[in-house]
Amino acid sequence: MIVYATHKGGRYLPMEESLKEQPEGRRGLYVNLTNRCNCACTFCLRQMKKMAEQSSLWLKREPTVEEVEAELDGVPWEYVKEVVFCGFGEPTERLEALIALLRYVKGMHPDIPTRVNTNGLGELEHGRVFASEFAGILDTVSISLNASNAARYLALTRAKFGEKSYEAMLAFAQHCKPYVPNVVLTIVDKVEGPDEIEKCRKICADRGLTLRVRAYEDS
Ligand code: SF4
């Protein structure tokens, strides 16, 4: 499934079914570009391969930009409150497609906010700083902070770049600040205890970044 809405119980529904279940009101429209990711988080559904392949979000083939645009063209936009690039893998793995589609959405629907949920390792992956390319097309970047230090972060994410991943993720958040109105770092409440969450608050405060503590089921 390329575009979808989320519903209670961790369910992902095509817009048509979402509207049957909830005929009124606006909702987030999620865009799923890839299954690929440079992390292997211990808590990620992708780790359970069988379950992952059975998920409606598992893409047998990555859609082209044109295919995603065609899906977006068919959406009843009066019911959309935000467009979120998220899905099953890491959206910045397809950086060019992501930027092209953010531009497409903003061009067609300038009043609808856009968001990218990311692990923040895209600049490491691509070997360049690209945050400025989000200017004018991205309203919120939500970056998984996960932990208060590099060792804990690596133990949880098993990022392929090793311990330098943590600093690179924080640097990416700071690179985004001049170009993206809302830069939010997130941590999951049930994965980390209160002490760890407090340390994360301090790291964010010291760097002028916003921390959001997410409920586990939002993940
Ligand atoms: S970064 Fe996200 S998609 Fe990648 S393994 Fe971790 S939770 Fe899963």
Explain what the structure shows.
This protein is of the alpha/beta class. The chain has a single domain (about 5-219), classed as Aldolase class I (TIM Barrel, Alpha-Beta Barrel), CATH 3.20.20.70. About 35% of the residues lie in helices and about 20% in strands. It has eight helices and eight strands; from the N terminus they run ββαβααβαβαβααβαβ. An eight-stranded mixed beta sheet has the order 2-1-3-4-5-6-7-8. Helix 3 (about 65-75) runs parallel beside helix 4 (about 95-110). The longest helix has 14 residues, at about 95-110. It is globular and about 45 Å long. The model has no long low-confidence stretch (mean pLDDT about 95). Iron/sulfur cluster binds near residues 37, 40, 44 and 119. Iron/sulfur cluster binds near residues 46 and 90.
Q: How large is the share of residues in beta strands?
A: 15-25%
Order of helices and strands: EEHEHHEHEHEHHEHE
Category by helix and strand content: alpha/beta
Number of helices: 8
How many angstroms does the end-to-end distance come to? 18 Å
- C-alpha geometry: globular
Order of strands, main sheet, comes to: 2-1-3-4-5-6-7-8
Q: Please estimate the helix content.
A: 25-40%
How many domains make up the 3D coordinates?
1
Bound molecules: iron/sulfur cluster
Number of strands: 8
The CATH topology annotation reads as TIM Barrel
Give the CATH class: Alpha Beta
> What does the largest sheet look like?
8 strands, mixed
Q: C-alpha Rg, in Å? A: 17 Å
Low-confidence parts lasting 5 or more residues at pLDDT below 50? none
CATH homologous superfamily assignment: Aldolase class I
Q: What's the rounded overall pLDDT mean? A: 93
CATH architecture: Alpha-Beta Barrel
